[in-house]
From TrEMBL, chains A, B:
The chain crosses the membrane at residues 300-318, 324-353, 374-397, 403-427, 439-462. It comes from the Bacteria. This is Magnesium transporter MgtE. It is found in: Cell membrane; Membrane. It is a multi-pass membrane protein. Belongs to the SLC41A transporter family. GO terms for cellular component: plasma membrane. One of its GO terms (molecular function) is magnesium ion transmembrane transporter activity.
Length: 463, 463
């Protein structure tokens, strides 16, 4: 970690970011012929994050051979960049010496991130590898709830009392031994005598100010204090909303105990989004590195819920068997109404789920948003009612059938707008993640209403 | 912008981040009774990002009254935080003096972000409000393609030649007038005589090192150069992947022309995710502040595509009218197979779209991923085939019917896994955003295959 890597200019093509297939082939070839020198040479220009990506993309057999051959070059940062699904496997392959060395190089917040999802015996192995001070820090962090600010923060903080001047702060910084400072830092946190943070001073301001200037005269305008028990998703939201670069973390008594920097907040934001997207699609935690059995299990619950939904819709259809037996065209056309409602409902619910996540949908505008979605549903419903009505008339030569499907379409699209907005809002209010559960409810509603409206009106009008 | 706002501790509840309904009511009441002093007092503790959220959540009538009453207090940063959909409206309400003042306070990159989506006459008004130097900077940035690094960067950069020492850099920083420096900066970019960036030095290292130390001895390990024409989504990816805090931007000749900081990259990451989620759900650009007509228009194309898909599925059903007329149970059960396939396909495609976006799905593992998804589809297909087969037998008392639906289920789930992965990969290869178009294709496939397999096998087995 002490060498300066070559500055790698980013090319206009995607290619520069990712390991191209050629680079991966070359690396795997070096592994095949067990050429350790060649492997080290090929891996040398790669950032640990890229090496982690490489390990995720190759299969388990190549992965273990590569790690064994790479051996002592294995950097701690690779471990923290690695997808959770293969961390345990990789740690299992590393020799104890390499693991110890790798873990000792890591920042305490990265070690926390690494060990929190490991099984007990691996967790112990890693904690044992740490020096006493670091182990204590990691164990303290593990005392905070999962996904909390306390797990996310790093303990090394640069702080200064309120009465200090610029000169005193700079002298103190110079006198502090390297290992007590964070790897990177951008602010000095000013604290009162009880260690409560009162403000931030950027290093840029510090450097440009006269030695006798009071730190308190240089405070940044935007300053946010984060309680250690705060959920990490709210931390990421605050960083993004207020353009924070770093923020102090405090314990229950409001005392400074650590700091969170924006790069970690950005990683959390990324994970939260990933989670939202996957949950909306009914894919639990999914990752490409998961085993087939793992993935099958993750997707099963949502499919099971969908099966119940589909059976509920079928029960509705079953009520109209007699009508369908008389007019088979009903069976041909009925999926159209349900499908359009399902799609319109998904549109509304996705907008609502996002707006809830970004705190743009609140008590202040919920009724206006619901009215708006219903109106959008009604207008699009009318437009597609006309289209499908005409299709129905032309296809089956029955104006009455065209009329029936048109009316059913309008009804289902209005219901889709209403359910697509109201269901996520209600789930959010009662504390259920709307990204996770809305889809099943909304589709059930649009399926049931779609089939019932179409077949019900058909019975009234056509029979 | 010169006052220090009170440090606002973040509460454990969501409430502290957002404007509670109470705060909004109080503000709207002050607007109702036209109490300017009260309004200013209530708005004072709010961050510009929160004021922007407030303006987005109230209706257009309240919005214009609030802005008129708030008047001179209106900060430029509110404009840059505002959702695009209501920016033009808000700018139209501001008096020319307030607008000029607000725009002059903004950083050049924020002005670019503001004007790029405005109509021509409003764009001119704002450019006219700027001082000459700033106007030139904004116009230069507008010369770069939309969504490129050139639009995202700020022009103010702190740089130093390779031969400088720490002492020379610090003296230079102190001698530079405030207005030529960026608002916040965390690195000094080291450049060669042709202005090509060669490395970054953090302010923390600079401050802790001896005056005679060479800057070149303090370079950071991770260093990325970003071409001005780079797409902003790739910029955000690089920041997140390599934990960059700031990165220099260069022109076609590789000369340093600006810098991008992580807070802007984080905002881009957030927007990209938003776009992906909304596109996956077939909601173009959607925002809650859009007008009904706007929203209706945005959602229409996807619904139109879905209508075609649904009609295609109906055409398949129409081929089996005779069979349905004989066995109405087929009409009752057929949506189940299509629906399960649609959901399984959506699961696979969402995982694939995400993995493509994060560059985790590449040429190196695409075949393995497809095999895996097909296998997952087959296993879940078998599980649900047994379940639905039993349901079919019990419900309709026909083992043959149970067998038919079970076989159709397995086939459609396997096809779903295959189509759900292969379609996004193919779209990505031919340069179409997989988030935008995959859904329609995958659902068409699972609908058509679902109905065809179920009804086709039914004809063979039951008739």
């Amino acid at each position: 970690m002490s060498e300066q890597t070559e500055p790698v200019p980013i090319e206009l093509e995607d290619a520069a970011y990712v390991l191209g297939p050629k680079a991966i082939s070359a690396i795997l070839y070096a592994v095949d012929i067990e050429d350790q020198a060649k492997l080290t040479e090929l891996m040398e220009p790669l950032h640990p994050a890229d090496i982690a990506d490489l390990l995720e993309q190759i299969n388990a057999f190549d992965r273990s051979r590569l790690i064994r051959l790479y051996d002592r070059e294995f950097d701690g940062e690779i471990l923290s960049e690695l997808d959770e699904s293969i961390r345990e496997e990789v740690i299992g392959v590393l020799t104890p010496q390499v693991l110890t060395q790798a873990v000792r190089e890591m920042d305490s917040d990265d070690v926390v991130d690494l060990v929190e999802d490991l099984e007990d015996h691996q967790q112990e192995t890693i904690l044992d590898a740490l020096e006493d001070v670091d182990r204590a820090a990691v164990q303290q962090a593990l005392g905070y709830p999962e996904y909390s600010a306390g797990r996310l923060m790093q303990r090394e903080v640069v702080m200064a009392p309120e009465h200090w001047t610029v000169g005193e702060a700079i002298d103190h910084l110079r006198a502090t031994p390297e290992e007590e400072l964070p790897d990177q830092f951008y602010h000095i946190v000013i604290v009162d005598p009880r260690l409560h943070p009162v403000g931030n001073v950027t290093l840029g301001k510090l450097m440009r100010s006269r030695r006798e200037t009071k730190l308190m005269d240089l405070l940044e305008e935007t300053f946010q204090i984060i309680p250690a028990t705060q959920e990490e998703s709210d931390v990421a939201y605050a960083f993004n909303q207020y353009h924070l670069i770093s923020a102090p973390v405090v314990d229950e008594e409001g005392r400074l105990i650590g700091i969170i920097t924006i790069d970690d907040a950005m990683a959390v934001l990324d994970e939260e989004h990933e989670e939202d997207i996957l949950r909306l699609a009914g894919v639990g935690e999914g990752s490409l590195s998961d085993r087939v059995s793992e993935t099958t299990k993750q997707r099963l619950p949502w499919l099971a819920v969908n099966l119940l939904t589909a059976i509920a819709a079928s029960l509705v259809i079953a009520q109209f068997e007699a009508a369908i037996a008389q007019i088979v065209a009903l069976a041909v056309l009925m999926p159209i109404v349900a499908s359009m409602g399902g799609n319109a409902g998904t549109q509304s619910l996705t907008v609502a789920v996002r707006a809830l996540a970004t705190k743009d949908l609140t008590g202040a505008n919920v009724w206006r948003v619901i009215r708006r979605e219903v109106l959008v549903g009604a207008i699009n419903g009318l437009i597609f009612a006309v289209v499908i009505g005409i299709v129905g008339v032309i296809w089956f030569g029955s104006p009455a059938l065209g009329f029936v499907i048109a009316i059913a379409m309008v009804i289902n699209m209005i219901v889709a707008g209403l359910a697509g907005t109201a269901i996520p809002v209600i789930l959010d209010r009662i504390g259920i993640d709307p990204a996770l559960a809305s889809g099943a409810f909304v589709t059930t509603v649009t399926d049931v209403v779609g089939f019932f409206a179409f077949l019900g009106i058909a019975v009234m009008v056509l029979l």
